[in-house]
């Protein structure tokens, strides 16, 4: 999402899961006016933190350009750029569009197959979409490291691909967005 | 027209993306705009897609210019549109007024943000008064208030047709939540659904000799005499009233036996629908009424729903302090049903807010 403000409502909830969320909470932003919608300065220096660091970027058409805002982004050997691709999104709903999209991101090291349709996701939608993603990954010579699937479908989904599934819990629906 | 969508397909996207795709599917030629949150991604996606389909875009120096260039675009025969929010909507009221005066078929997508002034970049329903009756005119405009991404897509397609068929400016009234959240919708090429898109045509620079080959194309927004203006405005009002039944749209559920009617518009209607069902499950007879067009307003239909239900109360809920409430009251003047209010300016209204309010007033 657009973490400058859309992540605010669930920041505290995520922190209770022992995640260190770099971004403003509702309380931090209160009274800041227009500056409350700015990037938290700690995000610029995010790579100086210890431990595993996830940069959730790519919202909107500027995509991976957001990485330009991060210090040391081109001097961090541990950095992996993973394209999370949902074949239900209009910009990535065909083989040609996925190829164009991923190539447009610049450096990409791997792909996560993330085909879903929100509350209307079915195993059939996932399998059909991820089949296209696998073909795109083959052409791009990138590994698909896992599929992200909502935990509600754990009993219904049969994984016939040669990459693992990570079952996920969706938090954003509780954030009004 | 080049096919944009191809085979009808369900997609998962933001409301802003849905708006940009709908404009493409509707055959829009050009967007004029100036950036403002929360509508920015309409511009972003349009500028990404437009070159692939031979479409145009111009970012102007401000919203006044964006509004006036849309006015110019449609006069040249192009399906032109803009998108804005908050203070941008305020600035655009001057060109929108010109569009009313000159009967220009522009389309504007309004993604409401908090106000007054810069307010918040996030969400509100505080642009109802501005979008329905803004400017120094008589509200001769068509305003669709959407509640889902599917409706954003559907009503933008319908909106271009309403604009070019009836020659009134058309507004798609969304909000920051609809703009930013993601949900599935079915995108389609209008023709595949049997929807014939009204062809655009130039309003000026026409060929032939006036009086011999054709009549004059007299697009006027200023008059010398008071009586002249009176005559024109009276004629436009009559034309607007004549087309009202063909344009007016609403949604009504469970009003037949309702003790209380939930009256909302836009994204708040999603919460009202859920609240109505939850209240029914608890034995409380709630009904649901939602104007889809705020201009023209479905006043006859709302009066009929009140009459047939015999409801004693109506709860008007909105993310503003009474802008929608005032609109409703002027439209149903004389009705004696007791009106309760839930006003939450600039913040979202969820199912539990409505359920709690209903229980507190019944």
Topology readout:
The complex is a heterodimer of chains A (177) and B (362).
Chain A: H1 8-15, H2 26-29, H3 41-44, E1 82-85, H4 95-104, E2 110-113, H5 123-140, E3 144-150, E4 165-168
Parallel strand pairs in A: 1-2, 2-3, 3-4
Helix pairs in contact in A: 4-5
Chain B: E1 9-14, H1 15-25, E2 30-33, H2 40-49, E3 56-59, H3 63-75, E4 80-84, H4 86-102, E5 107-112, H5 128-133, E6 142-145, H6 149-166, E7 170-175, H7 176-180, E8 182-187, H8 226-247, E9 250-253, E10 260-263, H9 268-281, E11 286-291, E12 293-295, H10 299-309, E13 313-318, H11 323-331, E14 338-343, H12 351-361
Parallel strand pairs in B: 2-3, 2-4, 4-5, 5-7, 6-7, 10-11, 10-13, 13-14
Antiparallel strand pairs in B: 1-8, 6-12, 9-11
Helix pairs in contact in B: 1-2, 1-6, 3-4, 9-12
Give short descriptive properties of this protein.
heterodimer, A: 177 residues, alpha/beta, 4-stranded parallel beta sheet, 5 helices, 11% strand, B: 362 residues, Rossmann fold, 2 domains, 7-stranded mixed beta sheet, 5-stranded mixed beta sheet, 12 helices, 14 strands
Describe this structure in words.
- The complex is a heterodimer of chains A (177) and B (362).
- Chain A has helices spanning 8-15, 26-29, 41-44, 95-104, 123-140, and strands at residues 82-85, 110-113, 144-150, 165-168.
- Chain A is an alpha/beta fold and 177 residues long.
- Chain A has a domain at 80-175.
- Chain A has a 4-stranded parallel β-sheet, covered by helices on one side.
- The longest helix of chain A has 18 residues, at 123-140.
- Chain B has a 7-stranded mixed β-sheet, with helices on both faces. A 5-stranded mixed β-sheet of chain B has the order 9-11-10-13-14, sandwiched between helices. In chain B, strands 1-8 form a two-stranded antiparallel ribbon.
- Chain A binds chain B through residues 1-2, 5-6, 33-34, 37, 60-62, 86, 88-90, 93, 116-120, 176-177, and chain B through 9-13, 17, 21, 37, 40-41, 44-45, 47-48, 118, 121-123, 177, 180-184, 187, 348.
């Amino acid at each position: 999402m657009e973490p400058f403000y859309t992540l605010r409502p669930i920041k505290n909830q995520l922190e209770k899961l022992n995640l260190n969320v770099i971004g403003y909470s509702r309380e931090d932003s209160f009274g800041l006016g227009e500056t409350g919608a700015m990037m938290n300065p700690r995000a610029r220096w995010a790579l100086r933190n210890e431990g595993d660091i996830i940069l959730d970027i790519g919202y909107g058409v500027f995509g991976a350009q957001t990485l330009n805002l991060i210090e040391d982004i081109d001097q961090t050997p541990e950095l992996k750029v993973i394209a999370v691709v949902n074949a239900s999104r209009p910009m990535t709903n065909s083989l040609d569009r996925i190829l164009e999209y991923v190539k447009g991101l610049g450096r990409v090291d791997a792909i996560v197959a993330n085909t879903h349709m929100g509350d209307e996701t079915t195993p059939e939608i996932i399998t059909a979409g991820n089949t296209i993603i696998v073909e795109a990954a083959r052409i791009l010579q990138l590994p698909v490291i896992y599929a992200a699937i909502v935990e509600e479908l754990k009993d219904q989904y049969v994984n016939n691909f040669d990459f693992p599934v990570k079952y996920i819990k969706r938090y954003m629906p509780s954030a009004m967005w | 027209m080049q096919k944009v969508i191809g085979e009808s397909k369900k997609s998962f996207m933001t409301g802003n993306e849905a708006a940009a795709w709908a404009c493409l599917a509707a055959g829009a030629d050009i967007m004029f705009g100036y950036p403002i949150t929360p509508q920015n991604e309409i511009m972003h996606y349009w500028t990404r897609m437009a070159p692939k389909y031979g479409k145009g875009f111009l970012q102007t120096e401000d919203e006044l210019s964006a509004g006036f260039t849309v006015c110019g675009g449609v006069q040249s025969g192009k399906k032109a549109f803009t998108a804005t929010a908050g203070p941008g909507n305020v600035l655009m009221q001057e060109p929108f007024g010109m569009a009313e005066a000159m009967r220009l078929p522009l389309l504007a997508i309004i993604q409401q943000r908090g106000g007054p002034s810069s307010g918040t970049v996030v969400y509100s329903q505080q642009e109802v008064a501005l979008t329905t009756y803004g400017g120094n005119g008589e509200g001769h405009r068509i305003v669709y208030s959407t509640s889902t991404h599917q409706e954003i897509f559907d009503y933008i397609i319908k909106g271009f047709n309403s604009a070019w068929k009836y020659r009134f400016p058309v507004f798609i009234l969304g909000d920051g939540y609809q703009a930013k959240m993601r949900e599935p919708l079915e995108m389609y090429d209008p023709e595949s659904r049997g929807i014939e898109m009204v062809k655009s045509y130039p309003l000026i620079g026409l060929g032939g000799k006036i009086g011999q080959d054709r009549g004059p194309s007299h697009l006027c927004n200023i008059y010398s005499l008071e009586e002249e203006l009176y005559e024109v405005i009276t004629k436009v009002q009559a034309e607007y009233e004549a087309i009202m039944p063909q344009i007016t749209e609403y949604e009504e559920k469970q009003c037949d036996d309702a003790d209380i009617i939930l009256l909302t518009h836009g994204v708040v209607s999603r919460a009202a629908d859920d609240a109505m069902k939850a209240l029914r499950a608890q034995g409380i007879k709630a009904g649901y009424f939602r104007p889809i067009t705020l201009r023209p307003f479905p006043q006859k239909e709302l009066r009929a729903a009140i009459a047939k239900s015999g409801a004693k109360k109506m709860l008007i809920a909105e993310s503003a302090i009474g802008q929608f409430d005032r609109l409703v009251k002027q439209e149903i003047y004389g009705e004696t049903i007791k009106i309760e209010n839930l006003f939450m300016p600039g913040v979202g209204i969820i199912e539990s807010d409505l359920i709690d309010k209903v229980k507190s007033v019944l």
